[in-house]
Specification:
single chain; 331 residues; Rossmann fold; DNA polymerase, domain 1; 6-stranded mixed β-sheet; two-stranded antiparallel sheet; 14 helices; 48% helix
Length: 331
């Protein structure tokens, strides 16, 4: 498995809402409040995880992506987008509202693209680093960013166990875990669907069958072309061959029937459209200018004041060590 190299600069892009949600539920029982008496457990948990990430990977630049919670271009086109999610707890909402201002005050870079989401910031960061000759590490607890994994781009997916217990995903590890190539993960997700976003997949095709289909055919473009030109004959043969190798029942004909059912291709195309991360968000990155937001190291006095306001001395000490000393910027 590969990991970021010290031979090229590294951008860490953080899915802010994902980490705040996770830390709200994991740390709410602590009841942590900042020196002003406001709830701070989600903010502190998110910041602590990013400090540990910086300590581990020593990035040059850190960007946080946030959702526009006032409007959504995806919901405008699909009113049922993310319908059914539980209403956010008011104390989580309060911390979501304060997160960007805290990070901006600290000297890190935050981006809230109008009408878009944190994943669009991650997609744009991955695209920016490719153009700039940098490396990119996406930090999230969601699967959406798996579609951005590729040469020079990793995803650190935060799960139980913290930073050091979470998987660092590159194309090889992603394929090992999900059975699908990184460049086809978006297609895999579109076939499978995403219940958390209220996006049904193609009926009757779950994750295992979707991975089998893409392994056998390489891409959904090849799948649709085979259906159009060969009535799916190669598709059936490829899926059945893989099933036999795995000692499973032949399912090619059944998969073909589900792919050619009314509305199946339209469902796939619809999901692709909504799931595709926008990679053209202006991140406002100027790493050649000293003092530009997000560029490490940061000002020690600012770090002491902002992180210290959370009221956790051990976190302030960690922040001073990893955000203000030269090794933090890979010098």
């Amino acid at each position: 498995m590969s990991s970021p190299s010290p031979d090229a600069p590294l951008l860490v892009v953080v899915d802010g809402p994902s980490l705040l949600h996770r830390n709200h539920h994991a740390r709410r029982d602590t009841g942590l409040r900042d020196r002003g008496g406001r709830p701070a457990w989600a903010l502190h948990g998110m910041l602590r995880q990013i400090l540990e990430t910086i300590d581990r990977f020593a990035p040059d630049l850190v960007v946080f992506g946030f959702d526009d919670r006032t409007t959504s271009t995806r919901a405008d086109g699909y009113p049922d987008y993310k319908a059914g999610r539980a209403e956010k707890h008011p104390l989580l909402v309060e911390q979501l509202d304060r997160a960007a201002s805290m990070l901006d005050a600290l000297g890190l870079r935050t981006v809230t693209p109008p009408g878009l989401e944190a994943d669009d910031v991650s997609a744009s960061a991955a695209a920016w680093t490719q153009r700039a000759g940098w490396q990119c590490l996406i930090v999230t607890s969601d699967r959406d960013s798996f579609a951005h994994i590729g040469p020079g781009t990793w995803v650190l997916r935060l799960i139980d166990g913290g930073i050091h217990g979470s998987p660092l995903l590159d194309p090889v590890r992603l394929r090992t875990m999900y059975g699908v190539a990184a460049e086809h993960y978006l297609e895999y997700a579109a076939v499978r669907g995403d219940a958390s976003d209220n996006l049904p997949g193609i009926p009757g095709i779950g994750p295992k069958t979707a991975a089998l289909l893409l392994t056998g055919m390489g891409s959904m473009r090849a799948v649709w072309a085979d259906i159009d030109h060969c009535a799916g004959a190669n598709l059936v043969a490829a899926v059945d061959s893989l099933a036999e190798e795995a000692g499973a029942a032949r399912v090619g004909a059944r998969v073909l029937a589900r792919l050619t059912a009314p509305g199946a291709r339209e469902r796939f195309d619809f999901n692709i459209d909504l799931m595709t991360g926008r990679d053209d968000v202006d991140l406002g990155l100027t790493p050649d200018l000293p003092g530009t937001p997000g560029l490490l190291p940061l000002d020690p006095d600012v770090v002491t004041r902002v992180v210290g306001h959370l009221g956790v001395p051990a976190t302030t000490d960690l922040a001073l060590r990893v955000l203000t000393e030269p090794p933090a910027s890979r010098s």
